[in-house]
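On to our target:
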Amino acid sequence: MEYIHRELERKFLEADRFFKAVLLVGARQVGKSTMLKKLAEQQNRTVVTMDNDFARELAKTDPLLFFQTYKPPILIDEIQKAPELLEHIKIMCDESEERGRFWLTGSQRKQIMERSRETLAGRLGILRLYGLSYREKKGILDPAPLDFSMDCLNRRKADLPQNDVIEVFSHIWKGGYADVQKASGEMAQTFYQSYIDNYLIADAVNDAGITDTEGFRRFIRACAALIGNLVNYRTLGEAAGVSDQTAKKWLGILQDMDVVYLLEPYSNNELQRLIKTPKLYFCDTGLCAYLSRWLTPDSLREGAASGHYYENYAVMELVKNYAYARDSALISFYRDSNAKEIDLLVEENGRIHPLEIKKSANPDKKEIKKFSLIEKTSLQYGPGGIVCMIPSPFPIDRMNNYIPSNLI
């Protein structure tokens, strides 16, 4: 299979030159190992995976002998399966000023990040990889910095085809797993079923201690049915036949696995009556579509849930953009107890960029009236607009634009 270059490669190599060890986290099968093995081809770097029974047993029982057998510089895949190595990595980092000696990957985000931060504080850089973005599929690895201005949007437009709803929903339906991109519909379904059985359920049992596997399957499907909605533990628990408390725990496990993404509500001490409940999205829209039995791109595009999937796609494209960009941003949504809502707020450099998301090529410009809510804060109002299916960017007023969704 042809390798698809990842936007994160640039940032990872920067981290490699700065930190003694770099940890790459992300869901199973998003391409962590593939990316690092590709980068390792240019170096004399040892590669070992903790999925290998012999290597994992050696790492757990005799870490010193492990590093005599597998010498740095080294890539250790799925490090969460042998956390005993972290203490020895710390010792070896302290013995040398050499940068980038250890590349690590992990799929249980919370578990491995907490332990590695504790053990390798000051020595470790942590980056996150998501599934393929629309830009990566088009080979755009270093897009113009995103500030939602017309100048920025026009620069991005120069590198991408015109926004097209058929192509966008093909991307949404296929999701971001590399193996699905050229698969038939039948093989895509087979991939997702295997992914659920061999990774999600297996990791939930082995790493999270879940024993009610059928209840957990129902819970994952319930999450897929509620994308784009405020998290409701009672609804999720009832669908899976478990308590609200168990539903909250299980959602945390899916978040740790990078299966779901919880978009946090905007928080500001100057504003009263803001809600504190996050919104639920899937990191991979293809997996979500399979779980909800949308088995073709056309059925998904024409179905009753198409607006929610379009919103999920826009949110995750922005999440990926800022995860890989040179400058980070805080992404949230606005909703108060009076149900006044702005779909997305992007906060960077002391400015807030408000965004509405509409699966339309001609959305009502009155949507931007909601943005007046931001004027109640002390933060500077930056360019914003309506993310939509318009073919090319177009101004709404001095500060806001119609933003083609394929440009984010």
